[in-house]
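note to self — DONT lose this again. spent like an hour looking for the file last time. sequence + predicted structure for the chain T wanted, 209 res
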Amino acid sequence: MPHPPHRRRILPMPLGVELGAFAPASLRTGNRVLVASSMIPLKDYPTMLRAVAIARVRLPELQLEVAGAGTEMERVRRMAFDAGLADSTNFLGFVPDDEMPRVFQRCDLLLHGSHYEAQGMVVLEALATGMPVVATSVGIAAELPPNLVRQVHPGNAEQMAAALVQSFSSDAHAVQALHAGPELVRQQFSVGKIGADFLNLYKEVSRVE
């Protein structure tokens, strides 16, 4: 069935990543999981915390770094304590944009568990640094190659934990992310690429009578 006429006139335009701020790191071989999300219900911290707790049964060396603040901060801290993650979790609070590149550099995998995303910029920023990603299949994550972003269903802590264990059990995911992630972002999602796409779109629209 063909799309309605108005659907054919809609073109998704993602936000671009400033590549100079998110330089690729060396191969990640550590055990530090990064969650970088606002602490609001949409981001689904309960599932992410349960997933890390489940994964730590197999990989007790896993550590969790949380960058974010919001209305559910105290609840998230309590949930981490109740899940047995208090001693393995570092809560950074709100991290300014200009400090996030350093956070990416010292962590080994991004965990992104949102119920919904219009895009999910943090996923692209992680890939720009060569970081492997485990993410729910929403927003931009659903459109990215599975060898870079291991996709799981929203709200499924067991599936998310299994993806974490798989990613940390060998270097394969980290190697693929390091080799292909930055190039993917450069080619498709850089500020320069998206800016050129917008300019071309404006030129095309201006020719329409």
